[in-house]
Amino acid sequence: MPQENKPLWEQFKDIRGPEEARRLLEDHQLEQQMTVEDLLYLRRFYVHEFPCRPIPDAYGPLRTKPLV
After folding, report:
1. Is 33:58 a contact under the CB 8 Å cutoff?
2. What is the mean pLDDT of the chain?
3. CA-CA-CA-CA torsion for 54, 67, 38, 61, nearest 10 degrees?
């Protein structure tokens, strides 16, 4: 099945996205505030659904580090 036909979460799991997201959350001490699903939603929202609004500086490296 072509990648573009898979749901986003399945594609994300195929590229070991959850493990990378957990590592990113741990590195920046955010694992108590956010889940992997929260992080993925945040990136999707700001990159695909609402790209004209800048990501707040408070998110630090999460603003520019691609997860997928």
Report:
1. no
2. 71
3. -50
- CA 57/CA 60 separation, integer angstroms: 5
**C-alpha 23: how far from chain center:** 12
Q: Is the pLDDT reported for residue 22 higher than 80?
A: yes
What distances in angstroms separate CA 28 from CA 18, 42, 58, one per listed residue?
15, 16, 12
Reading the block at residue 41, the tokens are 């939603």
Q: Which of 19, 18, 10, 68 is nearest to 44 (CA)?
A: 68
Mean pLDDT of 56-60: 70
Task: Please give the pLDDT value at position 1.
Answer: 42
